[in-house]
Amino acid sequence: MSGYRPGVQAGRTAPRSCPPLVLHVERVLDVSARQPVRAEFGFDPGAPLAVRVEFGVQGGPCVVWRIGRDVLRQGLRSRSGLGDAQLWPSDVAGRATVRLQLASGDMAALFVLPAPPLADWLEHTYELVPEGQELAGVDWDDTTAALLGGR
Q1: Going from the N-terminus, what domains does the chain have, and what CATH number goes with each?
Q2: CA distance 117 to 26
Q3: Is residue 1's pLDDT more than 50?
């Protein structure tokens, strides 16, 4: 039996998995009010361009955002992102943090995240799928045919 399967590039080994990162972050409501929020970051090596982030408050609904992995990484060092997801480094009471602003329509939310665990977790994702290799496993002929309705 052949190891060839359409749509899968031969010679590329399956990447290991990346355990999710759970952070307890704060949503900034105003200058003196903050709300604790659970944020779970997930990375799928099969779709390495984005990181899935699920935000939830105790007893409330969860909201899922997909943020570019490169946007998160750049946001640890300098302002990053355009449009609905923007990040920038900050310092809260001597702790390295990252501000994450998410916007949709006329709604926006600002979060404060601890930078060190996010940076460590992101670096692990780059060990699994190095920068510049995110699209290395794409079978472009198969993908083009599927987009054009050939399959």
Answers
A1: 21-128 (2.30.31.20)
A2: 15
A3: no
